């Protein structure tokens, strides 16, 4: 077992301790002062961004939320990542109870704060961190709380993330396969960086304790089954599962088996580290006329198959900060000068694959220019879009089965969508 936390502190932005809980008796409130002095030194170092500080035998792990610092101190060789994750879970639970975590909510609900901390951590080891489960036996109102005498669901139930007795008149499960494309193109038109971040986002409205099984066109699985010749298969990197997934089962036969939480959650995230062809390509030619007028000729081209259509396309082209707009013309969609962003914003509601559109705009500049003026740093062209029923990776859901002991029939709904993440093209 990894080392445990010694104490948990809540500090304001000036380093004053608002609430703290001692779990092992080997640190004191003095550690909070030492932590904050080290934090101030750390902030002076622009290259230091890690959320861990070590000083005189004590490790401090911290996060900042709103006007608070949440800090765990430990004298043992602990798992820093797990304790930082625990701090994020504390934020989620407190926001669930107090509808927002700030200094004022801590002061107004300090009794509930200590009750929650006692349930969430025992002798420095994280315990229950699911807000829905904690709500089953710690109930709050405007003046205090009521603690029921029954044990927590996490003890009596097979899983800690799902309560018993859930019932729906219509049993449904929704699965969205969402991929975000990150691309950076330099001024020579070369793709410098590209990757795809994917997520399987689920919303479950199922009664009882359903067992779900999900099958993907996973290359490792299909090769093991001798089905490599049937359709496209994929190989994903950096797969991360929700805690409900049985990891041992996945490692053995690549089956994604799980009892889902109720409501919305991310079942799986993954990354595709590959050279991605830009799905929407934009070229911008800028011509200077008589030192007081700029002419922009912007060409947008969709580089995906014509059976797909991009929606809500937004192309943001930077313009000089001292420009004033005169006229804009587009062959599709609408464009307007956005002076608050120093950009021309071109919006296209529907952009089918294999199409090309033009936008032309004229801007006026001041007739007088400072001789020693510093040239403006050119911002990149930024693009946003969504492409329904399409994925870059080619991931496919082969089946989604729901089995529950009562035998009800559930309706699974699956959809795919690709969107632009950090999608930037540098101007020449």
Automatic annotation (TrEMBL):
InterPro entries: Adaptor_comp_med_subunit (IPR050431), AP2_Mu_C_sf (IPR036168), AP_mu_sigma_su (IPR022775), Clathrin_mu (IPR001392), Clathrin_mu_CS (IPR018240), Longin-like_dom_sf (IPR011012), MHD (IPR028565)
Protein name: AP-1 complex subunit mu
Gene3D superfamilies, per the entry: 3.30.450.60, Mu homology domain, subdomain B
Keywords annotated in UniProt: Cytoplasmic vesicle, Membrane, Protein transport, Transport
GO biological process, one term: intracellular protein transport
Subunit structure of this chain's protein: Adaptor protein complex 1 (AP-1) is a heterotetramer composed of two large adaptins (gamma-type subunit and beta-type subunit), a medium adaptin (mu-type subunit) and a small adaptin (sigma-type subunit).
Major location (coarse): membrane
Keyword ATP-binding: no
Compartments in which it is found: Cytoplasmic vesicle, Clathrin-coated vesicle membrane
Domain MHD: 170-426
Record-level GO cellular component terms: clathrin adaptor complex; clathrin-coated vesicle membrane; cytoplasmic vesicle
